[in-house]
Amino acid sequence: MYAIVEIAGQQFKVVKDQKVFVNRLQTEEGKQVAFDNVLLVADGDNVTVGAPAIDGAQVGAKVLKHLKGDKVIVFKKKRRKGYRVKNGHRQALTEIVIESIAASGAKKAAPAKATKKAAPKAEAPKAEASQDLSKLTVAELKEMAKAKGIEGISSMKKADLIAALS
């Protein structure tokens, strides 16, 4: 069984117990990581292709260590001009080992975090509106004016909007 999964912006063909070097992940060494963006899962003759990703599929991995890749030398030169520049680069990498490939039944954790962050932002302008209108942005004031049915708000400035809402 193998899967094609997107990890840190790159696609990898992975098999269980395979070690993979990926771009640096923001996870501590020894921790478990789950990747939800599985593009293809193949189990013998049974191949499942996502559009673009397979719902419920998940690849589980464990972070082994963080390291730097081999040095790449970047040398630039312009002939007869005396211009020579030499730079080196070592890519930050993370070594992971693939522990499991689940074709279906996995739950995605990312949408739950997004809804928690979005909810406080929607409630904040309403709470501030009763206190002080000068702290709101022009866009928020225009939304409040539109909700109250005030006309001609497109040409109003911030002071005019505050006066109309008061």
From TrEMBL:
Q: Which SUPFAM superfamilies match?
A: L21p-like, Rho N-terminal domain-like
Its keywords, alphabetically, are: Ribonucleoprotein, Ribosomal protein, RNA-binding, rRNA-binding
Question: Locate the Rho termination factor-like N-terminal domain: which residues?
Answer: 132-166
Which InterPro entries does this one have?
bL21-like (IPR028909), bL21-like_sf (IPR036164), Rho-like_N (IPR011112), Rho_N_sf (IPR036269), Ribosomal_bL21 (IPR001787), Ribosomal_bL21_CS (IPR018258), SAP_dom_sf (IPR036361)
Q: Which PROSITE patterns match?
A: RIBOSOMAL_L21
Region named Disordered: 109-131
A Pfam match is Rho_N
Instruction: Tell me the function of this protein.
Output: This protein binds to 23S rRNA in the presence of protein L20.
UniProt-listed HAMAP family: Ribosomal_bL21
The record's family statement is: Belongs to the bacterial ribosomal protein bL21 family.
Concerning PANTHER family, the annotation shows: 50S RIBOSOMAL PROTEIN L21 (PTHR21349), LARGE RIBOSOMAL SUBUNIT PROTEIN BL21M (PTHR21349:SF0)
* Assembly with partners or alone: Part of the 50S ribosomal subunit. Contacts protein L20.
NCBIfam families (UniProt xref): L21
Quote the protein name from its UniProt record: Large ribosomal subunit protein bL21
Q: Which gene encodes it?
A: rplU
